[in-house]
Amino acid sequence: MKRPVLALLVAVLSPALLLAKEPSAFKYPEPPKSDQADDYHGTKVPDPYRPLENADSPDSRKWIEAQNKLTFDFLGGIPERKKINDRLTKLWNYEKYGVPYREGGRYFFSKNTGLQNQSVLYTGSALPGDGKAVLDPNTLSKDGTTAVTGTDVTDDGKLIAYGLAMAGSDWQEWKVRDIESGQDLEDHVKWIKFSGASWKRDGSGFFYSRYDEPQSADQLKAANYFHKIYFHKLGTPQSEDVLIYERPDHKDWLMNAEVSDDGSYLVINISQGSDPKNRIFYKDLSKPDAPVVELLNKADAEYSFLGNEGGVFWFRTNLNAPRGRIVAIDTQKPDEIRELVPQSDEKLESAQVVGERFIGNYLKDAHSMVRLFELSGKPAGDIALPGLGTASGFTGKRKETETFYNYVSYTEPQTVFRYDFKTGKSEVLFRPKVDFNSADFQTEQVFYQSKDGTRVPMFLTYRKGMKKDGTNPTLLYGYGGFDNSLTPGFTPSTAAWLQMGGVYAVANLRGGGEYGEEWHLAGTKLRKQNVFDDFIAAGEWLIEHKITATPKLAISGRSNGGLLVGAVLNQRPELWGAALPGVGVMDMLRFQKFTIGWAWTSDYGSSDNKEEFDALFKYSPLHNVKPGTKYPPTMITTADHDDRVFPGHSFKYAAAMQAAQAGPAPVLIRIETRAGHGAGKPTAKQIEDVTDQLSFLVKALGMKIAF
């Protein structure tokens, strides 16, 4: 569709307009339907678009193709689209380095020259330096959709195990490469999900976790249960891999194993779904037939293994410390927990043991601050950071005298640093050169009150000198779930939005991890509505303080954030000027039936529980779409290979929204092909995706872009 839609914004100008049906310029494809209805604790819930859960049926494929034609015809009629694509391509085209690490006397680091679909892994004897290419995933598929999901290098630096995912799938297969020759060995293990690999210190093989091989027809949406830990001995077929640990009595346990730095222990982390509370078991690798010992088996807190001194293990934990602390546990006296670094006013987001120090990465109002401690717990200074940003990495081993990290903010791309423990100073290893003048923009942090009076932080980034007159196009982003913290970060898409004259707002909602476990729990299960209230209050604050106004206010979120956008669209359709719900969890009554969806019940609850069903049913985006409502311009995005959040969520939601729309604004769905939930998405596809989203916003918000 190439003609402009003149009345895109009518539906969002006044709540009084929510009643009457207005002519639409869009004829939406007819979805396959059924008379399916399900009984939930005595409540009959229709599910008319259930056939769309079969994404490969002829009727569904026909609907998908028609939806994409409608969407891309509309996007193709936006004059600014090519200009946005050119700007994004230019912004994306800069060298990007990953945080280096050292193994076997070699440094390893990833590098992308700018527009490569996937970053290349290099090795070298010194930093900075170009090094030698070890692994180039761009050579593994013509369209760049084969991505490296993880690596582990042997202690002697001679072999690397690496994981691959195709077309964005969560399914991985792992191979082994000789670093010097660049040749792959015959080792090949498959059907791996949610797992890395960890070599034995002698390089004889590695530990990994996998599922049983699924039926081919069920690979995209079948539920994943019974995770198991195996040992793969180098030079043998996968059929001979040794089963190290399984729990057939706990089909929902997720297991990951890592070998301790000293090689003495296999430390097993066991989580139940997405609940941050976990269990820690271990196996003594010095004894061939040693049993798996259940060290911490109560799942009463979160425990992250940091390292060990013999049989004494160090952990970051929130046990009796919701913002986190560091403790020591003697494996011979597991009930005695000795505190090393006490809880502080800031959240201990992560910690590492490098250079005979604990490196504590804290969050202060959702931005990083880094503190050092001796292994006794005594404070040993800070690592100074440039401003309101995010520091991450801090790679290295206990005995090393250096560590590497990166720093990034909303206006500054990722800069890589080396920290020298002897001098106590950081030096820049790599600072990227981007076609973006950071000095032209600024980030400020504001605080606002949610519906119940809770104080919530929000970052605002915009061009210096911006007038607060209510006319600024604003993109409000949120997530609010699974203990995930939204901290400052730089992306070419955000940079382009800022250069277009937009304001970028990020709200740190409850349900996230910014202030510790209490903040997280305040946005889960029966309290999930707090997350939506926080987001709505952020939108109201932006309008009240004349940053923007409804016709200029867009909202965006992905995955759990897509659920967020869908929920607030239903609850306050008149508040928003446009919406971009991405790869969202939209059917809150059936999410647990697909792939790893069952693991999210720790945050969401489950429709199998009467009380939780009542809460889910009240906000489930699919079930609260209201026919006769004037929804703002909305573009839903998903991918046909998303085996994290099954695309049927977005398919059904789009069909319901299109049927309900009473105004002239478009409700579109963009369905990516040969792509998944987002991880490993090639650069070319990322640029296309962002181009379309920003083009949609230009049209929906009536923007005039400067470049």
What does this 3D model show about the protein?
This protein is an alpha+beta fold and 707 residues long. Among the domains are: 10-89 and 436-701, Rossmann fold, CATH 3.40.50.1820; 135-258, Methylamine Dehydrogenase, Chain H. The protein has ten helices and 39 strands. Strands 32-33-35-34-36-37-38-39 form an eight-stranded mixed sheet, sandwiched between helices. It is globular, with a radius of gyration of 25 Å.
Report the sheet with the most strands, covering strand number, pairing sense and barrel closure. Answer: 8 strands, mixed
> Distance between termini?
25 Å
Helix content: 10-25%
Briefly note the CATH topology name of the domain at 10-89 and 436-701: Rossmann fold
The total of beta strands comes to 39
Task: Quickly describe the structure.
By secondary structure, the protein is of the alpha+beta class.
Topology overview:
Blueprint: E1 37-40, E2 43-46, H1 58-76, H2 81-92, E3 96-97, E4 101-103, E5 106-112, E6 120-124, E7 132-135, E8 146-153, E9 159-166, E10 172-178, E11 184-192, E12 197-199, E13 205-210, E14 228-233, E15 242-245, E16 253-259, E17 265-272, E18 278-284, E19 292-296, E20 303-309, E21 312-317, E22 325-330, E23 337-341, E24 347-354, E25 357-364, E26 367-374, E27 379-383, E28 390-395, E29 402-408, E30 415-420, E31 425-430, E32 441-449, E33 455-463, E34 474-477, H3 492-499, E35 503-507, H4 517-521, H5 529-544, E36 553-558, H6 560-571, E37 578-582, H7 601-604, H8 610-619, E38 634-639, H9 648-660, E39 667-672, H10 683-701
Parallel strand pairs: 34-35, 34-36, 36-37, 37-38, 38-39
Antiparallel strand pairs: 1-2, 3-5, 4-5, 5-6, 6-7, 8-9, 9-10, 10-11, 12-13, 13-14, 14-15, 16-17, 17-18, 18-19, 20-21, 21-22, 22-23, 24-25, 25-26, 26-27, 28-29, 29-30, 30-31, 32-33, 33-35
